[in-house]
Amino acid sequence: MSAFLDKKLEKLVPYTPGEQPHGIEGLIKLNTNENPFPPSPMVIEAVNRTVSSLNLYSDPACVRAVEAIAAFYGVRKENVFVSNGSDETLSFIFHGLCENGAAFPDITYGFYKVFADMFGVRKTVVPLDDDFNIQIDDYKDIKSTVVIANPNAPTGICLPLSEIERLLNQDLNRLVVVDEAYIDFGGESAVKLIDEYKNLLVVQTFSKSRSLAGGRIGFAVADAEIIADLNRMKYAFNPYNVNALSIAAAEAAMKDTAYFETCRSTVIKNREYIAKKLRELGFTVLDSKANFVFAGRNKKVSAADYFEKLRRNNILVRYFPEGRSADFVRISVGAMEQMEKLYEVTKTILGEM
Ligand code: PMP
Q: Is residue 11 part of a domain?
């Protein structure tokens, strides 16, 4: 820490991203919930077409991406905001839309806590129940902005839309942020509720279901006034927040619905395969509607040992050693060969114990 750091940041504990190792031959990377499939061929073509214009600034309004998202969801352009990954949208939310604090579950996306600390937002941490479910009633007296991931991470458990509506109706003057990073893998999006609920802000990403984690594109869908608030912050911080290649990629990815459908249905199929296999081997696997499974509580191997042993076998998954998460590992759903290999290695690990 230098002598120049603002005192208010001295205690800030930053987010720890999953490892991004390069050049390890044969590594099966199942630790950051990326899509195992490459971007759509239409995306690659669109990006290639755009490279020669990189001498120009990108479109600050991200119009082509905004229009493609608006068309996909049947909303107006004024209801859509595009950002540099959904992390950037989330940062604007914590920075500018959490004046009365932010409430989120104890087990959820770890960045919420970091953003709250970064921007000096008061936190209310609401424990999940014993089965790792969000209990909507626990939020009824909370006045702060509520931020939930649906499906939640790292559990994968998804709330039905009726529960989201119950949360929204608890207090129509309280903002509810629904982070739908994983919604395309089996949940129902709350985007269809934005006309009815002016207190709803849905956040999504191209990183998971649209194979563009490295493109860093996220977006929000909400009432036009909330979108204008996000733009107010963006234009006060980084007007060219999304680069030209990523805007082109986002537009093409949204338009290639056939590719999107194939990739996401394959991931769902592979998730059901690995969840079943791990259960057969004695793991508790929570009911996931995301592109990962949260698996653990195996009598033969602790989650910490399982994580280490997978790693020695060149399979990288994610382990969160704090609290109740410590009994589980989070395994991203990959291609079928990767899932089969994971299953084989897991059988060997359990046999070794
Ligand atoms: N929300 C959740 C729940 C996530 O798991 C992630 C990815 N780690 C993000 C948001 C951020 O994704 P990105 O910035 O790549 O859009």
A: no
pLDDT score, position 277: 98
Cα–Cα separations (whole angstroms), residue 193 to 130, 172, 248, 307? 29, 13, 28, 40
101 & 229 share domain: yes
Cα 43 to Cα 40: distance, rounded to the nearest angstrom: 5
pTM (two decimals): 0.97
| Residues of the chain below pLDDT 50 | none
Q: Specify the CATH number for the domain of residue 276.
A: 3.90.1150.10
CA–CA dist 164, 116 (Å, integer) = 22
- Which residue among 32, 33, 34, 87 has the greatest number of ligand 1 atoms within 8 angstroms of its CB, and so is best to mutate? 87
Quick one: 90 and 132 in the same domain?
yes
CB-defined site of ligand 1, < 6 Å: 85-87, 109, 149, 153, 179, 181, 205, 207, 213, 218
